[in-house]
C-alpha cells in the first residue's frame, strides 16, 4: 500500500495545493519495516523518507502496548514481520548492538518506525485500545522513550459479546 499512499500524497501536494501547505496525515500500523526491501540491504529505500518527500506531514501509529507478546496477540501480524537478518534497532538503548539470527518481532519494527519518524521531523501520534489488560502507563512511557511528544491517544475498547 505504500506506493499508493506515496502517489496520493504527491498528487495532493502537487495538484491540489498551489502552496504545498496542505497537511497530510497517514494512519498506519507502522509495519512498513516488515517488508524487507524497505529495510534490509544496501539498496533499501526508507519509507519514512519516501513519505516525507511525498509531502506527508504527520503520522498516527498503532503502538497498542509496551509488550511485544501482547502486541502479537492484539494485532496478529503476519509471519513476514519476523525477520532473521542483520538489523540495527536504533530506538533501543543498546543501539550499537546488532541482532543476528534472532527473530525481530513486529513490535520492535513498529517502535523503530515511530522512532525514525520522530527523528525525520514528522508530527507523530501513537494510539492504543483502552483495554483493561493493557498497561497504559508502560505504553505511554515507551512512546515518550521513542521521542513522541504528543499525548498517547487511547481509543475505546468494545469487548466481543458472546
Question: Layout of SSEs?
Answer:
Layout: H1 2-16, E1 25-28, H2 36-39, H3 47-54, E2 58-62, H4 68-75, H5 106-119, E3 123-129, H6 136-145, E4 153-155
Parallel strand pairs: 1-2, 2-3, 3-4
Helix pairs in contact: 1-3
Short description:
With about 160 residues, the protein is α/β, with parallel strands linked by helices.
Question: Your description of this structure?
Answer:
With 162 residues, the protein is of the alpha/beta class. The chain has 6 helices and 4 strands; from the N terminus they run αβααβααβαβ. The longest helix has 15 residues, at 2-16. The N and C termini lie far apart (34 Å). Mean pLDDT is 81; it is low at 93-101.
Amino acid at each position: 500500500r505504500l506506493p499508493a499512499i506515496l502517489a496520493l500524497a504527491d498528487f495532493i501536494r502537487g495538484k491540489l495545493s498551489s502552496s504545498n501547505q496542505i497537511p497530510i496525515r497517514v494512519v498506519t500500523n507502522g509495519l512498513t519495516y516488515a517488508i524487507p526491501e524497505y529495510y534490509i540491504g544496501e539498496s533499501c529505500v526508507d519509507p519514512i523518507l519516501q513519505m516525507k518527500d511525498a509531502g506527508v506531514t504527520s503520522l498516527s501509529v498503532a503502538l497498542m502496548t509496551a509488550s511485544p507478546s501482547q502486541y502479537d496477540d492484539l494485532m496478529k501480524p503476519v509471519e513476514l514481520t519476523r525477520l532473521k537478518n542483520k538489523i540495527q534497532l536504533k530506538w533501543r538503548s543498546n543501539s550499537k548492538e546488532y541482532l543476528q539470527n534472532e527473530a525481530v518481532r513486529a513490535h520492535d519494527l513498529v517502535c523503530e518506525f515511530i522512532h525514525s519518524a520522530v527523528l525525520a521531523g514528522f508530527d507523530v501520534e501513537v494510539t492504543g485500545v483502552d483495554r483493561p489488560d493493557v498497561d497504559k502507563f508502560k505504553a505511554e512511557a515507551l512512546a515518550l522513550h521513542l521521542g513522541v511528544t504528543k499525548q498517547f491517544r487511547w481509543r475505546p475498547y468494545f469487548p466481543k459479546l458472546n
